[in-house]
Each structure stands twice: as C-alpha cells, then as structure tokens.
Amino acid sequence: MLKKFFKKISLRTKSDETSKPAAQVEFLMDFLSKHNYIFSNDFGENLEILKKKHLVDSFLVTNFDGSIIVSSSIDSNANSITCTAMLSYIKSEIPDSDAVLIKRENNWLMLFTLDKKVFIVEAGSELSSLELKALAFELSGLLEENKSFLKEKQLTREKNG
Amino acid sequence: MVRVITIASGKGGTGKTTLTANLGICLSRLGKKVLLIDADVAMANLSLILGMQSSPITLHDVLLGEAQVHDSIYDGPQGIHFIPSGLSLDNYKRVDSERLSSIVKELEDSYDYILLDAAAGIEKNVLSAFCASQETLLVTMPTSPAIADALKTKLVAQRLGSKVIGVVINFVMGEKGEITKQETSSILELPIYGSVPYDSEVRKSFMQQNVAPVSIRKPDAVSSKEFLKIASRLTGLKVQENIVEKKGFFSRLFSKFRKK
Predict the structure, then answer these.
(1) Is B179 on the interface with A (CB under 8 A)?
(2) Per the domain annotation, does A13 fall within a domain?
(3) Could you tell me if A57 lies within 8 Å of chain B, comparing CB atoms?
C-alpha cells in the first residue's frame, strides 16, 4: 500500500508536459492503406498497380525488333519502334552501356534491356538503374504469371471442347 | 543460410549505427558469424562507434574497384568482422554504390549474418543497401516525424524487393506524448523487435578514450539488455520479457543522490 502511495506521488511529481499528437497518429494509421499494392487476377489492373508502386507514368516492354510484349499506354507503337532502334544503336556504339536516359521537357524516358527484352519507362523524375531493374523484375514476374494463367485458361477451354 | 539485413530508418539520428554495432556484437555473443558493413558511404561513422577509425582499405576502395573485398574486412570487437566506409569526402562522389550487391554476394558463404548500416533518407546509397539485402529492419523513435519517415522507408524497401521484417523503437522515455509500441506496430503494420529505452550509457560510450559500443562497455545497461533481446529475437531464440525493471520513486531518488 505504501509502495502504491509513493508511486502515485512519484508519478504526480514527475514533470511530463507532453501529450500525444492524436490527429497525427490517426493520419499515420491510415497511411499504408493508401499505399496497398495488392495484385489481383486482372493483368491490366496489375499493370496499373505496378505503375503506382514504382512511381512511373507508363511503361512498355518490347522485343528487340520493336514488337510490343506489353504496354501500359495506348499510344505505344511509335515509341516502341523509335526507342528500340535508338537503344540498339547506342548498344552497338557503347556495348557496356546499361541504360539510356532522355530528359524531355516535362519528364524522363528511360530505356534498358533485361532478359532479352527492352523496357521503356516514362516518369516525372529519373529512376536509378536499381529502381529500373526492380520494376523490370516485377513486371517480368507479372508477365510470366499472366502467361501461365492464359495457358491454363486455354487448356481448360480445349478440355471443355 | 546467411541473412543479409539492412538497418534503415529514413530519418537521421534514430540510432541506426548504434543498433547495427550493438546488434552485431550481441549476435556474435550468441555464437553467430557476423559481418557489419558500413553502407553509409557519404556519412560513414560505424567505424567510430566501433572504435576502428584507422582502417586503410575501405568499402570506397572496393566500390571503386581499387581493392579486393577481402582486403577491406577487419576484425572487430567480440569476434565480429567489419567493412568500414571511408571517412574522407574525396572518394564518395566517385563511388558506385550499385556494386554493393555483388560485394555482399561474394561474402555470403562466410557468415550467418551480414548487417548493412544504411544512410538516412532514401537516396541511391540507401537503395543499394536494400537491393543488396533480402531483409530490412527499421529503426524509429516514438515520435510522429520518425514514424512517418519509417513508413516511407518501408515502402521503398519493399519496392526494391527487400522484405521488411520488423521495427525497433529507440530512445523510449515513457513520456505521455510518445507513440506507444502497439500504435507503432499498427501504423507500420510490422512486429516490434525491440523497444530500447533512452540510456545515457549509450551516449557515454562515445565519450571514452577507447570508444566501444555500450554492449561491450556496459553489458548490464538497460539498452545493452534490450539489444541482446533484439538479437535473440532475430535468431529465433526465446526472449525473456520484462528484463528492464521499472524503477520506483525511492530507487530513482537514491540513484540521483548516487550520481552526485
């Protein structure tokens, strides 16, 4: 009892002028829900999630001949041919080049290759090659998943006649 | 199998380097083979905390391709190994931190734990550390600005493929205005690996003729005990809770007289 009494006194006498910033805690509690990047079964939707997650405006994946594998923007035909040709030229002149970054008026265009594919990324600010690779790995994963999903779908369709 | 863990926080001054040093020492005490890498190539100071500031070959030299990685490894206290970053500003702008991943890969077979002490912020050097590690342990303080930065750091680490395993809350003073352990855990959606009380012994550790981390200088200090708990948790050992005793009024009063 005596201990409790003195404990109370010690708590009262201890000067603690702080108080919790409740509004800030509430704001922070809600932060991650706005940045939830959970992929679904919808490939198109997943591309949009990937764009948001990696903070880019659009991306385009092509073969070396310029044929499009996947694109997150509607107007991508012209970009795919020009960018692939430009990257091939730079690679032929500077064989150990990793990525090509082009500063445009309002944004950046970034070109690089990975696993025999050409990645063309458009964003408001330039991404480091680490960030570009992280995006490419995740995008390649999504493409593989989609490939096997489509294959499975085709097999089921064939089975059902 | 090796665990490569980046210690990051976003905000500066949260105690990343102190945690890295003490965690490394505690893991070594638990019988693990530990390598610490100072991945803060611009503002390196892990070597100062370990009391190992005069190392001729550093991570800078390895990243510049001017030295072999094995030549940059030094024997640290308590059996740990350590790769320092250069303290001078001469080279850091020339350093390509993206090569960190390949350096870490080269060393993976020789250790149980490789801890990377990341810089503050989310600049390229920090991104390199995330890319080089499979896991990230966040450090924060019980205040909203520190937790806000930890949130952003978590998102960046995940974006770069490093799994964020948990958070350590540092400088806990038990004041009413502090964000609690439970709140921090729900905000960050992460388990709490430890809650390190504010301990003047940590500060005093830097103010000695022979600088050594608090876990070596004062193994019985409250912070040292908590660092050991965090290390135990990392290794999956059962952790004894409530090691830190709450002091009553009289013991606090007497301790004040003792200090004088």
Answers:
(1) yes
(2) no
(3) no
Give Cβ neighbours of residue B122 (< 8 Å, ≥ 6 apart).
Answer: B10, B152, B153, B156
Rounded to 5 degrees, φ, ψ at B219 are -60, -20
* Residue A3 touches chain B, beta carbons under 8 Å: yes
Structural domain harbouring B217: 3-259
Single out the residue of B142, B146, B158 nearest to residue B192, CA to CA.
Answer: B142
Q: How far apart are CA A61 and CA A56, in angstroms?
A: 14
- The phi and psi torsions of B207 (rounded to 5 degrees) equal -110, 55
Using DSSP, how many helices (H) and how many strands (E) does chain A show? 5, 5
- Whichever domain contains B200, its CATH number is 3.40.50.300
How many Cβ atoms are within 10 Å of A26's Cβ, its own excluded? 10
For residues B56 and B40, give the distance between their C-alpha atoms in angstroms, rounded to a whole number. Answer: 17
Identify all chain A residues contacting B124, using CB atoms and an 8 Å cutoff: 128, 130
- pLDDT tens digits for range B181-215: 999 999 999 999 999 999 999 999 888 888 899 99
Could you give the number of structural domains in chain A? 1
Flag whether A126 is in a domain.
yes
Contact check, Cβ <8 Å, B252/A20: no
Is residue A27 in a domain?
no
The 10s digit of each residue's pLDDT in B137-168 is 999 999 999 999 999 999 999 999 999 999 99
Residue-number span of the structural domain to which A103 is assigned: 44-159
| Tally of residues, chain A | 161
Residue B248 has pLDDT above 50, yes or no: yes
Domain count, chain B: 1
Domain CATH for A80? 3.30.450.30
| Pairing status of strand B34-38 against strand B81-83 | parallel
Cβ atoms of B44 and B125 within 8 Å: the answer is: no
In a domain, A2, yes or no: no
